[in-house]
Amino acid sequence: MLKKSIILLLCLMLVMPTAVLAEGDLPVLEKPVSLTVRYGGNNDLILRLTQPNSIMEYINREDPVWILYELDFKINDGPWKFNKNWDGVIVEEGVISYYENLYDKMNVVGFHNNIAHDERNAIDLPIFPWNLGVESFDLQNNTYSFRFRYVYEYEAEDPATGEWGYKVITSPYSEIASIGKSQGGAIPDKLETPSNLAGELKTRENGQPYFRFTFKIPQSVEDANKVTQVWTKLDWKIGSGKWATEVAGVEPFEKVDRMLTDNLEVDPIDEGGWEEVDIKKNTYYFRAYFELQKPDGSIVRSPFSNIVEIGTPAFYSGASDWAKPELQKAYDLGLIPAILKGADMSKPITREEFAELAVVLYEKVTGKKSTPVSHNPFTDTTNPQILKAYNLGITAGTSQTTFSPKVLINREQCATMLFKAIKAIHPQGDYSVAGVKDFPDQKHISSWAVEATKYMSKMGIITGDAQGNFMPKATTPAQEAAGYGMAAREQAIALSLRTHEKMPEIKASSADNSNSGAKADETTSPSPGASASPESNLDTLISKATGIDTGYFEALSEVAGNTIETKYWKKGSMVKKVATGSSDNKTKIDIFDMSKGVAYSYFEGSTEAVKTVYAVSDPSKYINPFNITGDFTLGSVEEPVEIKITGNETVDGVSCSVITITVDGKVYAKIWISEDGLKRRSETLYFGLPMTTSYKNYKIGGPISDSEFELPPGM
User: Is 250 exposed, middle or buried (0-12, 13-18, 19+ CB in 10 A)?
Assistant: First the structure.
């Protein structure tokens, strides 16, 4: 019954009159844009035919030209089923009747004019096993291939018989689409996000308001729509309410028939009716996304686009009185990301929200657009703002594959991420915390957060309670229950605003850090062996190391029986590395521009270099050769990494502090640092192999010529 019903329906679509054109006015039939085949989920295949604009113009004009599609198929390496050559043929009753008499298992041809196309000129046609003369589709052992072309027929006289019939012209065949053994036909597992969503409130002729939106569709989504049906949806909410996608029974907006579109017109939602729609009282928020459905019924959804707001934003929902002036100022400066607009300011901020807040701060202060990391390491988020924050080194993951976007952050995490944002904005600043006193609750501050919390306190960006406690995090069940140490959204925005206001001072500090830093050390830093805590000594060493603007040194490494000799030059944001040794005994040169994230690599004697746009979280941490810890730790606030001074030893007659880097109780690296912040020896892992390195021939302060960082002439 199903088979007969489908055939009857398609027959009704096919039997249509053919427009008659003079021979000189015959249409020019372009090759089809694409043909794809996918499994439909009900022992059927779905062909997706995408037409060029010229074909659509023919069938949609006032006096339409009736254009047929003509299908063909083959199984495995067999011949094409029809492979019809229409040249010079007069068809007595037309193409449709020809195929009905030849092959009654399927509608080989059909009029495009009678089938609704989506906005991308695509249609779907089901193919069942009986259409190909088989009992079922065996996609593991057989390959099913399809092609199609356009056909136009017009009345003509047979010169041999004098009888009238039809002549036929055809387009070139489409590309072949195959499914089955060793073939494609797979539906995408993910979709890119819409971009550049823009919207405005407009009014219809009857005075009824409506919203109009436009956005950009990524090419990958356009390509996916040629494989299967992709549709656009527009999520919405009013004020601080929930998104439509978060409320059962409430639907996002979309065009009829689930189609992919780059524009939408929607009506405002208001319980009181149209006369009460007032964008001066209500704020409407919108975000776009794409969806497709897989044969098993599961939905693939893209990430959400940027958020568009129309109306007066009530960004201070639930805000404390003390926070409202700073929230207003932050809003006026454009420092509040869309994800926080309309949110309850009294609630704790999530990792995702803070990442977006930090990215906005970075872009506003630097005037630069940040970019997401090229390869997303996370399985639980595709938010481009998170990937931008990760690329800038502002945040990292909670594991190698997770980000945990909805997890709340505490004050020490907030301070550390914001400190990283500051260093990303101005890598060459003076970030010394020498002489900054411990907080009364210093013992509760994690070792990785010491530098950040002290620096943010030193600059007056973040303060503690009336007793001077920093309140880094909850340390008891009672504190956890009370939300102690958590960073509220309003606090995080206020900190971002204060950072924005302090940036001129922070940038100016790098100009005279050598003089002021030396003076501070002489007057306030404890002498070795005095009451200085190990954390303070570590902070001082790190500050000295990262404060080196210009310098040169050499390193000699032993790993797996091989010796690698490396020379380093640094001047400002430029770094040069020349390494000789390893198994191939070649000399490799790398030149890094940390300010641009660009590296050039080549072998000595070569005439060509490879340019790389590297995506590291913090160039000053990974590329800067003077950085003490380097890539031994990601420096994230989430990883259980301990960096501490565990003793004092002498290396080549130089007194050194021994820094140990431990992860989950396992020692990953030991580094010997002299009092001037320079590495003297290290024991680390090199791709899992133990490596011992000694450092020598330091030349701090230069001079180093700019030409040292240039590629050889002619390269």
Answer: middle
Q: Tell me how crowded residue 74 is: count the other CB atoms within 10 A of its CB.
A: 19
In CATH, what class is 538-708?
mainly beta
Per-residue burial over 164-181, b = 16 or more CB atoms within 10 Å of its CB, e = otherwise: ebbbbebbebbeebbbbe
Topology adopted by domain 195-311: Immunoglobulin-like (2.60.40)
Answer left, alpha or beta for residue 101, where phi above 0 means left and psi between -120 and 50 means alpha: alpha
Q: Which residues contact 632 (CB under 8 A, 6 or more apart)?
A: 661, 668, 669, 671, 684
Q: What is the pLDDT of residues 544-599, one digit of tens each?
A: 888 888 899 999 888 777 788 899 999 888 999 998 875 566 788 999 888 777 88
Instruction: Tell me the three state secondary structure of residue 32.
Output: coil
The amino acid at residue 171 is: S
- pLDDT tens figures, 639-698: 456 788 888 888 888 888 998 887 766 777 889 998 888 999 988 876 667 788 899 988
Angle at which helices 411-425 and 450-458 pack, to 10 degrees?
70
Which tokens belong to 37? 């085949």
Helix 411-425 and helix 489-509, axial crossing angle in degrees, nearest 10 = 40
Domain definitions of the chain by residue range: 34-180, 195-311, 322-504, 538-708
CB 439 within 8 A of CB 412: no
Distance CA 681, CA 700 (A): 18
Q: For residues 616 and 628, is the Cβ–Cβ distance under 8 A?
A: no
Burial of 194 (0-12, 13-18, 19+ CB in 10 A): buried
Q: Give the count of alpha carbons within 13 A of 90, CB side only.
A: 12
